[in-house]
Amino acid sequence: MARVTVRASPADRPKVSGRKTIASQTTSHISGFPIQRIFYFISNKSCMSFLRPVSLARRYSSFLTAVETAEKLVQPSVSSKFDPFSMVSAEMRVLAKNIATLIGSGHPTLNRVASYYFEAEGKNVRPLIVLLLSKALAKIPESERTRIAIDPYDVNEQEEFKGTPRAFSFAGQSPLDSISPLRVLHGINPNIILNPLSKPMMDRELYKAKDAQNGILPKQRRLAEITEMIHTASLLHDDVIDFSDSRRGRDSGNVAFSNKMAILAGDFLLGRASVSLGRLRNSEVVELMSTAIANLVEGEFMQLKNTVMQPNVGQIENGGVVKRIPEPTGKVPVEVHEYSVKIPETISHEENVEAAFQYYLHKTYLKTASLMSKSSRSAAILAGCSDDVIENCYQFGRNLGLCFQIVDDMLDYTTTAEMLGKPAGADLQLGLATAPVLYAWKEKPELGPMIGRKFSKPEDVEIARKAVEDAKGVEKTRELAEKYCTDALRNLRTLPDSDARNALEMLTNSVLTRSK
């Protein structure tokens, strides 16, 4: 750990001294504004960008950003105008409202279920990442962003029943406009105007042109909304699969409505997200985001078993009932993508645990990091960035997504249901072997059979929990999360220095300290 002592006054710049952690709390002023010093722990792997030599104005700006963001982490009630949400506050304020215009249907019950999770306060991390990253990418000169034609402007409102444009081009088409004739999209009765397919957005002003200050393109804003729609659809499905009874501090969708309605609403959100995705008119982005949707399902299937020690995919368990699945007929030869290594019976315990870790990380990428990484890559593509920048954005999202989920798995062992807003301690109950118990297994081979049977015996859960505590599995999991956090910061710092990049660095560091 590195000790960082921050001092500031109108005539004094921030200074760094000492080692370990801050151990004092005082009050000083910057331009007459009181700043309360707070205890903020900073890993030496997570260097803060505001300590780099920059201009005096930028120094104060970055310093304030660090202090205010740290304040918010320690004292969530403190309002901060420098936190990441404030930098894209206009877009974040209308996020749910804009999504509401995309998911309306002709059935009131479907409307109610589809909008249910958007009503509760969520973390909104995924759209926030897309918006902040888009803002940071805007600092790259447009002369260096020529991979595709940048589309900074909206087009005039379309006619409600227009035909397919004769001179169709990908650049210059609004993400709000349909590609097919609206009379076709409307279905049986072309006189019924369906809001998400025809009417302009409630906040179309945000989409008219690239904001000269924010630099966020209209299609990047829509990408953020699409990303949140896909994520919310996955939550509706996951809560059914995991038998969850709460989400975001209230009844989960499957409890509030029913399993059937929750699944159908999730499917509907994915359909609406696909419509909006097509209107971005970028085949590479469509490919990426569609793959992310498929990855969510693949990751869920990987979670049906914990390790590569369980080769029998010919049987499944549902609600405690084990049944065999039908054998393939061979009429539809499907290529199988192997997500694990073949393990002979003579393999060592250490190699077995390592293979299980690789399986766990691959599953974690598919279930969580894929959507973050592919939406980050898509934001860079829409900005016309070079291949190197696009790849760094992808790796940033990948590393941050892995860090985020690993911390989530750790919180399942360390926090309460009230703090999480969803059931705590559920992973072992569901039979899931996440990083903390895999670290414990490395030291206690006797956990292997329990992991293999998904902790199904009455005493398995408590034995595993005690083993995690004895082996310091939570602490080792935190170290793993810190590694991915550091890698994500390294990817970020290839972008030009900016307030948006600083905010992303703060957001990345805050993942390690979150409690829900």
Detailed description of the structure:
With 516 residues, the protein is mainly alpha-helical. It has two domains: 1-82, no CATH class; 89-306 and 355-425 and 474-513, Farnesyl Diphosphate Synthase (Orthogonal Bundle), CATH 1.10.600. Helix content is 52%, strand content 4%. It contains 21 helices and six strands. It has a two-stranded antiparallel ribbon. A hairpin with a 2-residue loop joins strand 3 and strand 4 (250-251). Helix 6 (125-137) crosses helix 13 (349-382), helix 6 runs antiparallel to helix 21 and helix 17 crosses helix 20 (473-492). It is globular, with a radius of gyration of 24 Å. It starts with 26 loop residues before the first strand and ends in a 6-residue tail after the last helix.
